[in-house]
Records
---
Amino acid sequence: MAIIGAGPGGYVAAIRMAQLGLSVSLVEQSKLGGVCLNWGCIPTKALYSATKTVERAAAGAEMGIKFSSPKIDLPTLAAWKEDVVGRLVDGIGALLDGNKVTVVQARATVASVGTVELSNGDTLEADRIVLATGSSPIEIPGFSFSDPLVWSSDDALAVSEVPKRLVVIGGGVIGLELATIYRRLGSEVMVIEMMPEILPGIDLDRRVIATLKRALKEQGITLQTNTTADALDKDGDTAVVHTSAGPIPVDRVLLAVGRRPNSAGIGLDNVGIEPDRRGFVAVDAKLETTAPGVYAIGDLIPGPMLAHRASADGERLAELFVGEDTPLDYGTIPQAIFTDPEVASVGVSEARAKQNSIDVIVGRFPYAALGKAQGMNETAGFFQVVAEAGSHRIIGAQIIGAEASSLIAEAAVAVQNALTLEAIADSVHAHPSLPEGLKEAAASALGRAIHAINR
């Protein structure tokens, strides 16, 4: 097997294939772990956690614990973040070595079916080639990453400075997560989104979005929807973003309008593979492209652009290669958004279910009614479960609040395994704990919540 790309899809595929007795070469032109580990998920969450300390210090006064104003040492913060990343990269290297995966540091190009050419002059012959090259940030007219005033997410995660005025173009996941981090660090942050609502394209119910918008505004983040960014003008140290709503003075611009598959320059034309206009590569039900023996996973193919989805693709493909198949339903893959409060979801929203003519019952439970949330001083948000009215099978869940990214796991197990409301409501949960909120939401849908009025 020759795998091109050692991100969360490629390295997981390599390890699982090796565990199943296949001979694997993994080619990576940069760092093990890919974008997620080095310039995406992990550094973002490390900075999210670090800057959460600033918020907790500010909130301590109302609990009777007072701190002096925190001093942020950017070089130390950046070094700590890099140390977290470095330890994880080293861990992946050890896992690959322990599973006897051959790792090749080079750029790879598909030369023909069964042949991969490397930038070091070598050639790999393989029975199967797996494309796991991931994706890259998108530019828009008038804003180029070559401009020192325009940041990509990579630049923002370097935390080399805290701009006084930061304009984030794009109100999606990446834009809002980085807006949260830089607001905590002290920047004045405005988020511009061209669509009517933030987090466009993500299946969230309106009350979740409304709760998040209210929280972001309370933190001092300005949200401007239905607004396009048209140009960036500079005059010495002064810069202005021209938008459809008027000019906005800035010190830095963070461009976070989405990502594009890395399908160019990897030799697809040599084997007759034609990406679509967005750059995605078509695959069949077994992840094989139109070229026999060439497969693709992760961000390179249509579906949610999530690291854990790519890893799931990688594991599934490895098992397909030895004659096993556990189908993967992309519609039941959970997603977590590291804003403040966190947002997490799995399955379908109430609105989507109704659009699909599914008769549903919905249960909700507020964080404010949880003893653990009160004790944590984290009372914003709620739990929501959506279930089929007849069978009570849980088909979706949304959580907005503290630790939603972890709490969604129980809901994901329920959705992925077609569990019922009763399965959650009748399970004894530890008290006091945050997961009790999901139990109460399920009970609420059944009309028998204990710590909320049933309606």
Note: The longest helix spans residues 74-98.
---
Amino acid sequence: MSKQSSYYGLGSVLPLFLVIFIDGMGVGIIFPILNPVYMDPIHGILGIGVSEAARTFLYGLTLFVFPLCMFFGTPILGDLSDSAGRKKILLLCLLGAVLGYLLSAIGVSVHSVALLLLGRIVAGFTAGSQPVAQAAIIDVAPPEKRAQYLSWLMFPASLGFVAGPLLSGYLADASLVSWFSLTTPLYFAAIVSLLNAIYLIFAFSDKPDSKAVTEKRKVVWYQALGLFVGAFKNRDIRLLSCAFLGMGLGWGTYFQYISLYLTQSYNYSGQALGLFMGVLGLGFAVGFMFIIKYMMKYFKLSMGITLCWLISAIGMAVTISCDVAWPAWVIGFFIGIFMAASYAGVLTLYSQSVGETHQGWVMGVAMSVVAFGFAVMSILPSWLSQFAVWVPLATAAGLMLISAGLMWWFYLVHKK
């Protein structure tokens, strides 16, 4: 362990865990309430006369703007953290989350689609806390333990992903508490983000000798496009980025459409969706804490990732072949496990591809690749579902199968 690692005891690393917890919570908290917000003509924000096609489009658009803005914002924030320091950028992310949740809540309250979309845009642009926190951990992690450290950091993300949907499903239920509504989960998330920002100010500090603050860089808003293209032009990470993009497209389709699929196929309520997403998040927790360790012990990283994606593709295909809902819960749990383990593995491969002073940059690049996949597949499944309710998940399975093939190719080329 390096000398610098001594600066990062439990008390100073804990704020990073809380930031990632909130990031995970924010991803999952929107799904149980988004369906009634747009699809329920009585309690939602759209009038009775709005067509189902228009509702589906706005549902997809609301999902679309977050990863699109994340695509542009995350590389910038990651690059800024390399020059301005991790703490300042993490604070910016948290305060952006506060503003985004508040705008979204107000939009739902006043039945304004524009305000709801604006809130998701603000939250998306500042949703770069995960790669910044990952870079902060990489600053102090020994190279041989980076995958393990990254998996530890992702554990609170999975816990947040469990808590977010569960809290959302119950905090939006007026039958439990009279003043609960569709906006309650959003206000709750805003308060938690603000409290974490205050805690971060006092409990976390960048060290003057940190490798993260050794280089000043010019940052422009459209640099995400250059970084994204560069990910596929760079010889060392081209195959890795192609495989990760395929995963982002496939996983993005499954993750963003499974709630709508369960609602359309089995009439799931907000609470039921929250419980399902919680089970998916529980699988994430298991994958990050346990599976990545054994995957690295018995397989080359790229080989283990290939198997994870192949199994996930099979699971998605089996989900749509069943006439009852319960297999989707079991499969979702295991998909969560394997996607979590593969995610930590891919980040490790990215980390190994660059020097020590560019860890924030490469984490931002990795996030931009997967964010692009999520953005593309946030609207397309809504269109695909017009053919049949199962088509989007079949598409997800096919994309995951392609990404597994690309990762296998990466293994054959790089042997790592």
Note: The radius of gyration is 20 Å.
---
Amino acid sequence: MSEQLDVVVIGAGQAGLSIGYYLSKMRRQFVILEKASTIVPAWRSRWDSFTLVIPNWTVRLPDFAYRGDDPDGFMSRDELVRLLEEFAALFNPEIRFGQTVTSIEKAPTGGGFLVRTQDGVLEAKNVVVAVGTFQMPRIPAFGRHISESVAQLHSSHYVNPSALDSGGVMVVGTGQSGCQIAEELYQSGRKVYLCVGGATRIPRRYRGKDSVSWLVETGFFEQTPDMLPSSRARFKAHPFLTGKDGGHSLDLHQFAKDGVTLLGHVAGADGTKLTFKPDLHENLKAIDQFVLDFEKSVDKMIEERGLEAEEEAGEPLMTDAYDSAVITELDLAAEGITTVIWATGFRYDFGWIKLPLLDEDGYPIQKRGVSAYPGLYFLGLHFLYRRKSGLLMGVGADAAYLADAISQRS
């Protein structure tokens, strides 16, 4: 006979812990299932020098906002993990580790759900899927065609420069991870080749404030999916910047000036030879335009709201990268490149939920985490309700909403 539970939460990351906190306050019977051997495994797996890219004051877990003495700083990986461990210790939830959920389906009777794992079946009145969007590393299919003489790893498996084979490194992708890893590598003395994608950037500071503060003021993180040009715009990378060494801007023009070889999108691979799209300058122009648009939007908001702000000019736009040759073919062996790091994001898979609730992108259909199936909820997804839903600054509010929805089913 299957074990009977009130609530099953899948995932012990920031989302699963957040809903667990509220369920504990409500004195609901629940269990969290986590396939890893510890809580918040995604944060633990970040590289050694990792820091948050948004200020510490944006960490707003339920009744546990950041309370340290450096709100404008950027927590390291280990500091953040300790904070999340402290949060979990507040209510000490029952977490069953090493539990991979293989399916969720409707229970034949009682209106609940069957949650199957490798160890058996749980029957729950309510299920909260809190596995997030960034579930599995995404590596382009043509990566299989690169010679075995070249080491390949996803950015989620990067540790530090000394952990890589000696030689040059190609980083594919210029989102948050790709740019931070590329900067660390070339500053460590490595020859770096960086494939520039569609991610944009913002300056670390503008007119006397951290730019994240201005993004909050302009409502950037409050955007809802219906405000986007298309459903797939939900998955566009956030503008890149870094919190390392107290935080600073990342600028691909500076990278080029410092000796990084910039390339366009990878188009294909055959052995040690790679081909690239001739879109490098086009991608750079889009990035530079985003900076100008960001600064104009902040200036406009300051004027319209009559806000006090410094009159400092923005960082001067560099142009060094436009002098870079547009390379469409490269032999990794000839260039001494021994490692390719795929900073190409993650993919998700909700096909193990045996209910017809996925849209054309394979994304759960829900309204602020509430699905069309009473008792089945989603939490921690990118753009679940607002842009901030998958972030430490927004997951708590969504968790509170779902906890209330669960309480109303009693």
Note: The radius of gyration is 23 Å.
---
Amino acid sequence: METSLLLPNHAEMAAVQPNVSLVQRVRQLLLIVHRANPILSWPAWLHVGLLVVALVSIPLDHRLITGANAWIKPAKFAVSDIIYLWTLAWLLADLPAAAQRAVRRISWGVAVSIVVEIVVIYTQAARGTTSHYNITSPLNGILFGLMGIFIMLNTALIIWALVLVWRHRPHGSAAYVWGMRWGILLFLVGSVMGGMMIRMNAHTVGAPDGGAGLPGTGWSTRAGDLRIAHFLGLHALQLVPLVGWLLGRYIPRRAVVGTWLFALTYAALTGFLFWQAAQGIPLVAAR
């Protein structure tokens, strides 16, 4: 039996009680997302459990990988994947019924891809070694290659999703629809940047990976770091549709133009940060 996906979600979103606490409101929104696309929501909840594992492990396991605690990277990837899975579930639920069979297939493919990637990341952290760009042994090379295969699969599926949001108009205002289209497109740009890092077998330009970095992110403060533009591109999936939705709700007459301006500015900033990193220039230089 196929899992049913519910749509649209705007009516349910409007039904969220405005006078409840923030925790209750978040709970209501998560329930909406889960009903809209359980195929993507269940892996997100799996990541919540994995995030707890990483956070508990940080103070207990003092091993360092490229200069940082072994469990910092798994925790960051778990958070990023949670946001990605729930966002994609929400956006795809806004596609009309004619597109939902394709949405189901995309959802299954993305869910499997993300779970495989996070399992490799956690496995390598538990082994005390790096997950990305690690070809120091046959096993490490196989695991890194496996991640690469599923990253490419995920990218191909998001290209399919981009085609769908052009062929089938999603529910919502025109600004929100344009925000969704731009957000998915810029996400793909960020994915291509990630592919370039895989091809280089590193994310730092002008120095080895690791070493001094910005607190929390680890972005290099002594050389260029391609992860910055990669991060910005990937999170266009959340920011650009959100801006489109906000503009469509509060300034509808200028919402489409505003969404385009925001998306183009966002794209230019992402491109500039990529160029800057490719020249070996850090975002913030250490003193």
Note: Residues 138-167 form the longest helix (30 residues).
